[in-house]
Amino acid sequence: MADNRNSGYCLRVPVRADEAVAIKSQAQRCGLSTAAYLRNLGLGHPVTGVFDAEAVLALSRANRELARIGELLEQWLQNDARLSVLERATLTRNIGAVLAELQTLQAALLATVQRV
């Protein structure tokens, strides 16, 4: 909504500094100017956000990584014949390492989702 509005009317809305920052931040998240954001809200028009392309790519990478880890764990838990050459202690250590990697990935996913 990038139109020039020369209506001559300007509404003054007193807000605290922290409220101004929050409103500007929300407008930016929606890809709108502060005026367009407030106008849409005031007129009851839907205000939708724009996707953060970087966050979407990060979530896609995390999804692939989760699939890889899931397949690896599935192999180990099914006692795949190819893994019978590994000692039980080695296999347990490897599973522990993968679970630690999974926790790290979950934390990264949470941070990405909270940013979006």
Protein model, in words:
The protein is mainly alpha-helical and 116 residues long. The chain has two domains: 41 residues, no CATH class; 63 residues. The protein is built from four helices and no strands. α1 crosses α2 and α3 runs antiparallel to α4. The protein is rod-shaped. The two termini are 22 Å apart.
Write the SSE topology.
Blueprint: H1 17-29, H2 34-42, H3 53-77, H4 88-115
Question: Tags for this entry?
Answer:
116 residues, rod-shaped, 2 domains, 0% strand, mainly alpha
Task: Give a short synopsis of this structure.
The protein is an all-alpha fold.
Strand content: under 5%
Q: Give the % helix.
A: 55-70%
Number of helices: 4
| Form type | rod-shaped
Radius of gyration equals 25 Å
Number of strands: 0
Biggest beta-sheet profile: none
What's the N-to-C terminus distance?
22 Å
Q: Low-confidence segments, ≥5 residues, pLDDT <50?
A: none
> What value does the average pLDDT take?
81
Classify the oligomer: single chain
